[in-house]
Amino acid sequence: MKLEILTPDKKVYEGEVRSVTVPGSMGSFEVLKDHAPVISTLEDGKVIIRTEKEEETILIKGGVIEVLNNSIMVLAEGTINS
């Protein structure tokens, strides 16, 4: 799957992933290969990115996620420096 995480000022992440966990407004949820199409709002929290080799966490300030045809787009209001 392809993941892109964008903020108003920069591209935070782009690459192939195995799964992504995001802080949805109704609770966190995970996106796996062949996930049903979805658009959801996001709360402040952790985006956990899992690739074949590693796991990475990015802290975001709210936003929106769109999942369509194994392509994931996260439009975040900003990132939180950890």
Q: Could you name the CATH homologous superfamily?
A: F0F1 ATP synthase delta/epsilon subunit, N-terminal
| Range of helix content | under 10%
**Structural class estimated from helices and strands:** mainly beta
Total beta strand runs: 9
User: Which fold name fills CATH's third level, the topology?
Assistant: ATP Synthase, domain 1
Widest beta sheet: strand line-up: 2-1-9-8-5
Shape: globular
The fraction of residues assigned to DSSP E strands is over 45%
In sequence order, what are the helices and strands, one letter per element?
EEEEEEEEE
Shape-level CATH architecture: Sandwich
The quaternary state of the protein chains shown equals single chain
Instruction: Determine the mean pLDDT.
Output: 96
Give me the number of helical elements: 0
What's the topology here?
Layout: E1 2-6, E2 11-16, E3 19-22, E4 29-32, E5 38-42, E6 45-50, E7 55-60, E8 63-68, E9 71-76
Parallel strand pairs: 1-9
Antiparallel strand pairs: 1-2, 3-4, 3-6, 5-8, 6-7, 8-9
Brief overview, please?
The protein has 82 residues and is mainly β. Helix content is 0%, strand content 59%.
Q: Could you explain how this protein is built, in words?
A:
This protein is an all-beta fold and 82 residues long. 0% of the residues lie in helices and 59% in strands. It has a single domain, classed as ATP Synthase, domain 1 (Sandwich). It contains no helices and nine strands. The chain has a five-stranded mixed beta sheet with strand order 2-1-9-8-5, with no helix packed on it. It has a four-stranded antiparallel beta sheet with strand order 4-3-6-7, with no helix packed on it.
